[in-house]
Amino acid sequence: MTRQTMLWLMAVALSADLALAADGQTEHRIELRNGREATVVQQSADVFTCKLAGKTYDVRRREDRRVTFYDGETVVASGILKGDELVLMSPDDALFLDLGWREDKVKVRTKDDAPVWEFKRKDGKIKVRVGEKEYGQVKFYPDTGKTKAKDSGDREVAVCRSLGRVSDSLGTFLVEDADAQKQCCLMLVLLLLGR
Question: What domains appear along the chain, each with residue ranges and CATH number?
Answer without folding.
Answer: 57-192 (2.40.160)
